[in-house]
Amino acid sequence: MSINELEVPGLGTTWLVTGLEEGRAVLADPRLSRDERKAPDALRAFAHNHRADMSMGRHLLDEDPPDHTRLRGLIKKAFTPRRVENLRPRAQEITDALLDGLSGEVDLIDALAFPLPMTIMCELLGLPEADRADFRIWGAELAMGMDPTADRATVEHGGKALRAYFENLVAHIDVDDRPSDEQPDLTRALIRAGRMSHDELVSMLMLLLLAGHSTTVNLISNGMLALMTNPAQFALLRERPDLLPQAVEELVRHDGPLQVSLPRHTLEDVEISGVTIPAGSMVSVVVSAANRDASRFDDPDRLDITRADNQHLGFGHGVHFCVGAALARMEAQVAIGSLVSRFPNIRLAVTDLRWEVNPMLRALVSLPVRLG
Prior knowledge:
Blueprint: E1 3-8, E2 12-17, H1 20-28, E3 32-33, H2 41-54, H3 67-75, H4 81-99, E4 105-107, H5 108-113, H6 115-125, H7 132-143, H8 152-172, H9 186-193, H10 198-228, H11 231-239, H12 244-255, E5 264-266, E6 270-272, E7 275-277, E8 282-285, H13 287-290, H14 325-342, E9 347-348, E10 368-370
Parallel strand pairs: 2-8
Antiparallel strand pairs: 1-2, 3-5, 4-10, 5-8, 6-7, 9-10
């Protein structure tokens, strides 16, 4: 059965969709909404309190069209495949600088998986290098908000600190009279465009910084873990670097950063695979299960970097398809390709790995490796 019910205390029944085709249908169906203002009272109150904990106003991921269309249109040009490809030499330069001189045992997240996407995103937004250590702390505190057992004071601290940072930035940043697409960074471009409220602007900047690096950290670290524990696939990628784009797609499918989609709620009764989900119900796609749907993928639990037909849901689907997917793919290709070519004997330095407690994201706490 690819659709299952789960009782959530205080929220009622949520529906978990585990099949690939059913998941694609859910993520593309306009009868399922991300706007909690259209939801029943309990869901609306829960979403409001969660947003307050994180000091996040309304943002791109919480809107339906037409507001979602307007907000996405303001940033999508910065993440087109062509513009992202222009960033590849810079990503390679950063990666080479981070890897130069490394030897012995290192934490791969500290050494590369975190600083590469964080540096790229900060440069895109025009944020100072000196502030990146703070961003990592605040981002980690905010990520704890997905854990229902987490200390809410810690989550609130991260949210308030990051929001205060961007409030101060927006209040004091200099923006000249050039058109938005001629501004030196995305922050100034968004301010110059002038098509967002102040709250939308600050929330967008918070979202871009957080989402623009966190999932890529996990994609790089999970991907390298999968390759190190599948040495034949590691060796094949080293012999066939032309497989790198295909390999990254398989790594996203096999053990990607997104485990469960953001919840949606039904605006009316919706039938999926013969199951009627009542109006006002919460629905989530279990991406990790859909990406290993045995009816869709041959031998789904096997890592196969030559897998050609790979229509996974690792970057979502529909109007909320990840706007930064091209950037994440490019950064993962650069990072993983560089590690495989530079360190053919890289291996795990521990037998037990620790994972973050996060029902939505598949995230390692650390990834100790011996570079060889």
